[in-house]
Amino acid sequence: MPTSFTVVPVEAQGPAERHGERPQEEEDDDRDRGAGDGIAKENSPFINNAEVDKGNMYEGKNMALFEEEMDSNPMVSSLLNKLANYTNLTQGVVEHEADEDSKRKEIKVPRMGTFIGVYLPCLQNILGVILFLRLTWIVGTAGVLESFIIVFMCCACTMLTAISMSAIATNGVVPAGGSYYMISRSLGPEFGGAVGLCFYLGTTFAGAMYILGTIEILLTYISPSAAIFKAEEVGGETEAMLNNMRVYGTCIIILMAIVVFVGVKYVNKLALVFLACVILSIIAIYAGVIKTAFDPPDFPICLLGNRTLSKRSFDVCAKFTESNNETRTTTLWRLFCDSSSLNATCDDYFNLNNVTEIQGIPGITSGVLIDNLWSTYSEKGSIVEKKDQPSVAGSEDTKMGGLPYVFTDIMTYFTMLVGIYFPSVTGIMAGSNRSGDLKDAQKSIPTGTILAISTTSFIYLSCIVLFGACIEGVILRDKFGEAVNGNLVVGTLAWPSPWVIVIGSFFSTCGAGLQSLTGAPRLLQAIARDGIVPFIQVFGHGKANGEPTWALLLTAGICEIGILIASLDSVAPILSMFFLMCYMFVNLACAVQTLLRTPNWRPRFKYYHWTLSFLGMSLCLALMFICSWYYALVAMLIAGCIYKYIEYRGAEKEWGDGIRGLSLNAARYALLRVEDGPPHTKNWRPQLLVLLNLDSEQLVKHPRLLSFTSQLKAGKGLTIVGSVLQGIYLDKCTETQKAEENVKALMGVEKTKGFCQIVVSPNYRDGISYLIQSAGLGGMKHNTVLMAWPQSWKQTENHFSWKNFVDAVRETTAAQQALLVAKNIDLFPTNQERFTEGNIDVWWIVHDGGMLMLLPFLLRQHKVWRKCKMRIFTVAQMDDNSIQMKKDLQMFLYHLRLNAEVEVVEMFENDISAFTYEKTLMMEQRSQMLKQMQLSKNEREREAQLIHDRNTASHSAPAAKASMAAAAPEKVQMTWTKEKFVAEKHKNKDSNASGFKDIFNMKPEWGNLNQSNVRRMHTAVKLNGVVLNKSQHAQLVLLNMPGPPKNRKGDENYMEFLEVLTEGLDRVLLVRGSGREVITIYS
User: Fold this and answer.
1) 30-39: per-residue pLDDT in tens?
2) Reported pTM
3) Residue range 942-971, pLDDT digits in tens
4) What is the sign of the dihedral through the CA atoms of 201, 202, 203 and 205?
5) What range(s) does the SLC12A transporter C-terminal domain occupy (predicted)?
6) CB of 974 closer than 8 Å to CB of 883
7) Listing from the earlier edge strand, what are the strands of the sheet with 688-692?
8) Max CA-CA distance within the chain?
9) Could you state, in order of their start, the residue ranges of all structural domains in the chain?
10) What's the CATH number of domain 680-819, 3.40.50.620, 3.40.50.2300, 3.10.20.600, 1.10.230.10?
């Protein structure tokens, strides 16, 4: 149903307000109010951060309801205005993300369209040295059919990559940086850095290949006399040529580096000239092909039998000539015979075969295409022979060296030709690299790139068929044109002259080399300025105008490595690897983004599908191993090392990349799988919730707790580091962020891999309860809580008081979670310390599911505890057979595959000592006094200390005596007998009866003590004495932690019992099991 709108002007402002004058009251209100609610202005990555005149921006009352949010949430009209004025950054400038917070300079809007900005640069980069120098040789060696397969595979690879690249390039604005920007923002900094550096190396080696092509054209076809090194012996031509390449290549690379350093703008201006050379050369080839249909060029080839002869050494293609009825031998005769006379001794093959001359370019209508359909691979040093030509074999002993045959310089096979050819289809990124200079990059990049690939693919495929249809096979296999007087083979086909191709290819390879030396340093500079690879950050600097000076020097140095290799056929597969790896990851990026269906994935280019990207990725990987499996492994190793280096040392960047989305999807899938049920006992490991205390500055009080966590976990399983801030969340936002930053920083220092969770709660007890209940997600929840013993629990102002601690113990039990309490945590070792000897003592008093046995095993996996020995102590009661207990325990540990010493300690029953009564009395008096007296904190402390001092002074003598008795070595017997037990019991009664009788007479208040407390204190004192006797010098003592009393009135007494139980021990870990078995003897 159509709706009509009527715009009605609203008189919302008074005259004063319309003239920009504001009442004094409003200005005062503004001063009081400040800028909104103190929310910092958001920086949008796609909006220019131009300063806006806020004075008259939001005048009026129409939007008064939103006026406090204007600083953080601009009006739609302002947003659209900024978007309309947005321009891309030009190449070589810091990417927009790094420049968000500074005011941008005014940038002139670029006006380059699809044809000039994308199509022609791609055409220039794709067509080049391989087309002119190697394509005819590839056709002759592989045959028309296999060459067609090679070219089709490579072109299909680049076309599929271009489709993926078009989808990525049209999914938002692509600033300067091209392929590196697309990959890094789609796959994350690790992949982006690794592939970006590989792409940089590929571009650099491409520069070396173009320079080698330039020198080959110069020394082979333009001016062979310019060679510095000459072949001094037979067969030394190849080595001399390589040395010439190295010398000339080094000179040219220095010259080109100087040109690039002095003026890049001149290189860019000459680009069109170089492109014109390429296009004219290709037109000349097609014109020559057409001409061969009715007037083939005259390029005769000399054959001896079926062997091709090099015409560099002779002029006349005959053994002898007749002049004035006189037979004279030719230069060719003298090359095969020992003298010029007709009776000379000649090469056996020369004598048996005739010299014939055939046309090198018979023309497109000659039917030579049938002969060139099939491959003719050969070994290194073999003679180029014409198939189906009559030949008589000579003796096998004849030496070929020195004879004017055309030899193959390298061994040829299908996969090697793929590696040599593939660089000729690279260059498809040229358009995306110029994205900052395009008027409409999202339209131009897909259209221009795909059109350029289609054009060049047609040129390559048609050239293969036309070369095979026009040129004789032996000429095609003659790489350097020796059979046609040293002419460039493709030049012999061109019209009007071979020099068109020679000069055109020379300038095009020069231009391509300059373009590589211009583009590669900028790519390295973009990677360096991103800051993801620390060791290359120096290459982000340059001249004042942004030119990458240091990156240019490094590029020239790496390019020199390619020059020293000196063989174009050896350099080509190297850069093929790097380009193929880059293209593979472009396809991977598109496939990942498409499959994840992230909300931000909305490309304007719609003709893509994840199957095409996956096919392109598979084809790239296959081509890598087809070209050269060992180069492929080396390239992948380099990329893998860079990836791991960035992951380990690189700066953390959040670019909303696809790998992060993939990780989230994988995590979701895994969490749903884990949710099915609790883990099997064999898979159980402590998944820790570490409860930290923070001081007033939000710093961690006990950093060693995180050290102990990393020693216990060694990066395995789940670790959640939690803490509680007291207050209201709205008031504590800043403190929460600060606390989280501090905790994460400490986790990084202590190498604790896990998650941080800060909870704000009105009181500490509830905050801890929230963490215990809700930390984790789904099946990834903690099953063990690790906390530090509250050392100052007797001080009432301590936030983490004993009440909070006891409640935490109760709640972990209720949640069926294990509990670890580290006492004297500040004495625990750091991750840098190493114990060279000592014991980890386990006091196994009650069965806790095996936690006590499992923890020392996990600790000893870490370097800190590795050399410590494990000892297990267990306590035998009066009715136990200690010998059998020890045997059973040893067998149990054997089945558990744990190495530990076993000792059974027998505790005989004796009367409760005076020291125990004294301890209990002090405990109950202190507790009662604090409950009755409503005093201030300081008064309570003073009162508690006074009670403690009075009791200590009045009973120091019997207490000291009792403590000495308790600390005396416990009597250990291997087994109890009835006689021993009765004798021991009477002995203790006789020795202590009179003393205790007197003590009770002296202290009648002892009789009023809670007998349950007395018994508990007796157990704590006795156990403490036994443990001190055996484990006082142990590096770590693990003890069963008794549970808190069911009656909450005894909570403070519970703390006292634990204090007495662990008194005198340096490092103690109190362990309370979760109620389930965590260790098993079964496999």
Assistant:
1) 444 443 333 3
2) 0.69
3) 655 565 555 545 444 444 443 434 333 433
4) positive
5) 819-1083
6) yes
7) 755-761, 719-726, 688-692, 784-788, 818-823, 1068-1072, 1036-1040, 839-844, 869-876, 901-906
8) 157
9) 300-393+400-408, 629-677, 680-819, 834-952+1009-1078
10) 3.40.50.620
